[in-house]
Write a structure and sequence with these properties.
Layout: E1 26-28, H1 32-43, E2 49-52, E3 67-68, H2 70-78, E4 88-90, E5 92-97, E6 100-105, E7 117-119, H3 122-135, E8 139-142, E9 145-152, E10 155-163, E11 166-171, E12 175-177, H4 184-188, E13 192-193, E14 199-208, E15 216-220, E16 233-239, E17 244-252, H5 263-274, H6 284-289, E18 292-297, E19 302-303, E20 310-312, H7 328-347, H8 356-377, H9 381-391, H10 396-405, H11 414-428
Parallel strand pairs: 1-2, 1-12, 2-8, 5-15, 12-20
Antiparallel strand pairs: 3-7, 4-7, 5-6, 9-10, 10-11, 13-19, 14-17, 14-18, 15-16, 16-17
The structure holds flavin-adenine dinucleotide (FAD).
């Protein structure tokens, strides 16, 4: 194990972190989670350093749908970024299955009172977040990859990094792991996925299309691997923030024989089905062939999210919504929480970091638990057919979307009842 030269800032000889402003947080990953934390720290006067391995000269067309919920838009507001002029406003959702269709308005967010989602390409979103962090004085370095932690007596004392083939060890006494779904750095610190909890596999392609005046998105609930053999997942069609269309499919690991599901074939069928309506001219098979995808851990399936002097946030912590696979809102929210907790740790004591765990729980533990139960149910063909039927009725469509987006009102209603019932069932039923 590489040793750090000389005295280490913020560490005593006993290997105990004393706290105090000498600590300088190091953030690994400049996606929504890492940048939200860096901005939060900087706004509170804590100088932070953020590294990301992506090539600074080449926006890489990040694999994402780019759909932001009204809550995500408000979280960006709170971070000092007005995302609205950067993206396309979305005010309605079409829920579709087997020739049926229901259009609903985007559910009004109980937290923000707003019902305006937006689509915004990830390159633009991430660029805006990184620029804001830089503006506030965060020491941002792109093109630098974290290789492995340097651990002594149970604490992270440094991080071995590489940029342009040049390796070095950076001192670190407070670390945020926000390196995304694969999180090799998190694994090196001992995080692991609960193997029997669901994850999602998604595939998307960005195509030229006719999107002028579009303010709607489509969700298709009739993904089937064969006649009557429905899958737990959906297809989506989002207009881009320019004349592009983002078409994708997502399937939960709760499907029978999930690893054998052919996402490319599902995507090809979906492109074929929507091409005329969205002005897509490209051959569906060729388009599906060049699609890119990823597996995302969801529903709090990664543990632990707090160590003696590190936190884990965003996809690295499996915090995306288990029902929708959407993780930008959660990454921003938990990134902000991580920034607040780290600020407290630099000012008081590092055990403040343990306060992150109850904060995460308070934000979405109930919803994620019921979400995990629902995707298990829809993992059976009858469950996915039931969802497709409910989602395309006039009463079911708003309930399904409000439930999926966790927009629960205290006044009660169908989504709240469903939430209470699944929560109750979740308590008595075993987790897996
Ligand atoms: C096909 C697809 C479509 C999706 N669509 C949507 C959507 O429409 N809406 C939505 O809300 N969510 C969507 N998601 C999920 C969303 O993309 C993620 O939940 C979100 O990006 C999580 O943010 P993050 O900051 O945790 O991780 P990331 O955005 O993955 O950021 C991690 C960063 O860490 C960097 N990094 C990784 N390893 C290292 C290392 N060793 N050293 C330094 N840097 C490193 C990476 O370069 C990256 O910039 C989609 C996911 C997929 C796969």
């Amino acid at each position: 194990m590489a040793r750090l030269p000389g005295p280490r800032p913020g560490l005593t000889d006993l290997g105990v972190l004393p706290g105090g402003d000498r600590m300088r947080p190091l953030i690994i990953g400049g996606g929504p989670a890492g940048t939200a934390a860096a901005i939060t720290l900087a706004e509170r006067g804590v100088p932070a350093r953020l590294i990301d391995r992506r090539d600074p000269r080449a926006p890489d067309g990040r694999v994402c749908g780019g759909l932001l919920t009204p809550r995500a838009v408000r979280l960006l507001d709170a971070l000092g970024i007005d995302a609205r002029p950067l993206g396309r406003s979305i005010d309605s959702i079409d829920l579709m299955a087997r020739g049926r269709q229901q259009r609903i308005e985007w559910p009004t967010s109980i937290d923000t009172g707003s019902n305006a989602g937006i689509v915004l390409s990830r390159d633009r979103l991430d660029a805006a977040l990184l620029a804001r962090a830089g503006e506030l004085g965060v020491d941002v370095e792109l093109g630098r990859e974290a290789l492995e932690p340097v651990i002594e007596r149970g604490f992270v004392r440094g991080v071995r990094t590489v940029a342009a083939s040049h390796e070095m060890t950076e001192p670190a006494d407070l670390v945020l792991v926000a390196d995304g779904a694969n999180s090799t750095f998190g694994r090196a610190l001992g995080t692991s996925r609960r193997q029997d909890w669901p994850y999602v596999s998604a595939l998307r392609v960005v195509l030229h299309g006719t999107t002028t005046d579009r303010t709607n998105v489509e969700f298709h609930f009739d993904l089937e691997r064969g006649p009557g053999d429905g899958l737990p997942g959906f297809g989506w069609v989002f207009p881009g923030d320019d004349d592009t269309v983002n078409i994708g499919v997502q399937v939960s690991s709760t499907a029978r024989d999930a690893t054998a599901v052919n996402l490319h074939a599902l995507l090809e069928q979906l492109i074929e089905r929507v091409a005329d309506r969205w002005g897509v001219a490209e051959d569906p098979a060729e388009a599906a062939e060049r699609a890119e995808g990823a597996r995302t851990p969801v529903g709090d399936s990664i543990v632990p999210v707090a160590g003696p002097n590190f936190l884990v946030a965003g996809d690295a912590a499996g915090q995306a919504n288990p029902l929708t696979g959407a993780g930008i809102e959660a990454a921003l929210r938990l990134g902000i929480e991580a920034g607040e907790v780290m600020t407290a740790a630099t000012r008081t004591a590092p055990d403040a970091l343990q306060g992150f765990v109850p904060r995460v729980r308070a934000i979405h533990a109930d919803h994620h638990k019921t979400g995990r139960q629902i995707v298990r149910l829809t993992g059976r063909p009858f469950g996915s057919r039931l969802l497709a039927t409910i989602a395309t009725t006039s009463w079911g469509a708003p309930t399904v979307m409000r439930f999926a987006l966790a927009e629960f009102r205290s006044s009660g209603g169908a989504a709240e009842t469903l939430h209470s019932v699944t929560k109750l069932l979740g308590r008595v039923a075993p987790e897996a």
